[in-house]
């Protein structure tokens, strides 16, 4: 199966790296600046499965088309490539807020289209991609896309009506975690740790807590009580986080993100 990636920026580059690390990927990368094309050819010189090509070439040759340009660039891109797409092509838009109806408006009737929301940990095979297929996508096509993306991490299928909330809790969420880690490191430095010491500990705390959530399937509130000894240090810290409104800040941020995704 040949995959085209249109737009190799932060997210497109992460998907490309994730697919390549999975081994055996056949990827046609489409960029619009010659210096970026040169850089990519050099970067992937050891990977014969990666080619940098013109959009029309990718459109004609690929089975699956991953759109990773900015949302405002999707319409022009589809106008440019849709005449060359094969009838059995699958178009997967990963652009914020671009609806299945928007996609259909620039594609031939019946073209299989999927709206998707990935996140950047795709780069290290730990991403999550939320997929919402149109009615033109068969179960077999959806399975092919999920298998294609497997090297980038997990996939789940949700109705399109949940894409905006999924953006807020998945697509954008790594940034909240990085902000949390930045704050934890700064706070650790204030308490006498060196920055590298604090970063190593904070990184491992996030990695370990994530693994506990994923591997035990336990409710986060239960896992939290296991850390919180009666009258201990964690209870003292959590009381301050609650007093400073951490839950409220998250609720407000997730609503703002959902609203932005929905264009509200
Ligand atoms: N960043 C993230 O965490 C996530 C991003 N997304 C979505 O992914 C998409 C890309 O976002 P992001 O990677 O952050 O943005 P970037 O600006 O980092 O990447 C966009 C890339 O697309 C390139 N590009 C623009 N137009 C074309 C074109 N016509 N043909 C080929 N390449 C083109 C840009 O090239 P140039 O450098 O020349 O401008 C740039 O390299 C967006 O739609 C966003 O909503 C979704 C989930 C998460
Ligand atoms: O910030 C953005 O618009 C993109 C979409 C989700 C994550 N990054």
UniProtKB/TrEMBL annotation:
Residues 160-262 form the Pyrroline-5-carboxylate reductase dimerisation domain. GO terms for cellular component: cytoplasm. Pfam families: F420_oxidored, P5CR_dimer. InterPro entries: 6-PGluconate_DH-like_C_sf, NAD(P)-bd_dom_sf, P5C_Rdtase_cat_N, P5CR-like_CS, P5CR_dimer, Pyrroline-COOH_reductase. Residues 4-95 form the Pyrroline-5-carboxylate reductase catalytic N-terminal domain. One of its GO terms (biological process) is L-proline biosynthetic process. NADP(+) binds at residue 34. Keywords: Amino-acid biosynthesis, Cytoplasm, NADP, Oxidoreductase, Proline biosynthesis. It is found in: Cytoplasm. This is Pyrroline-5-carboxylate reductase. The gene is proC.
């Amino acid at each position: 199966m040949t995959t085209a990636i249109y737009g190799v920026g932060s997210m497109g580059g992460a998907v490309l790296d994730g697919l390549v690390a999975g081994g055996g990927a056949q990827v046609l990368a489409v960029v619009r600046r010659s210096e970026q094309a040169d850089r990519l050819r050099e970067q992937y010189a050891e990977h014969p499965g990666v080619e940098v090509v013109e959009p029309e070439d990718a459109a004609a040759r690929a089975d699956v088309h991953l759109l990773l340009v900015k949302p405002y660039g999707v319409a022009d891109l589809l106008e440019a490539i849709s005449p060359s797409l094969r009838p059995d092509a699958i178009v997967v838009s990963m652009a914020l807020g671009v609806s299945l109806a928007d996609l259909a408006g620039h594609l031939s009737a019946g073209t299989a289209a999927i709206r998707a929301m990935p996140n950047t940990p795709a780069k290290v095979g730990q991403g999550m991609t939320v997929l919402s297929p149109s009615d033109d996508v068969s179960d077999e096509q959806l399975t092919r896309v999920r298998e294609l993306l497997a090297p980038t991490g997990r996939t789940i299928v949700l109705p399109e009506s949940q894409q905006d909330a999924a953006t807020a809790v998945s697509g954008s969420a790594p940034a909240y975690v990085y902000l949390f880690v930045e704050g934890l490191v700064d706070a650790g430095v204030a308490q006498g740790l060196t920055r590298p010491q604090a970063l190593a500990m904070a990184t491992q705390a996030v990695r370990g807590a994530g693994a506990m959530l994923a591997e035990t399937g336990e409710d986060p509130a239960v896992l939290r009580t296991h850390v919180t000894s009666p009258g201990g240090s964690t209870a003292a810290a959590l009381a301050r986080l609650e007093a400073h409104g951490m839950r409220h800040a998250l609720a407000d941020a997730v609503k703002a993100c959902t609203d932005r995704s929905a264009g509200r």
